[in-house]
Amino acid sequence: MALDNPSVTAPGTSVTFINVFEITAEHLDAFVARWEERAALMSAKPGFLDSRLHRARSSENRFQLVNVAHWESQEAWEAATADTLFRERTEAARDDATTPITSSAGLYDVAVEFRAVTSPPDDRTDTTGTA
Question: Which letter does DSSP use for residue 27 in this model?
Answer without folding.
Answer: G
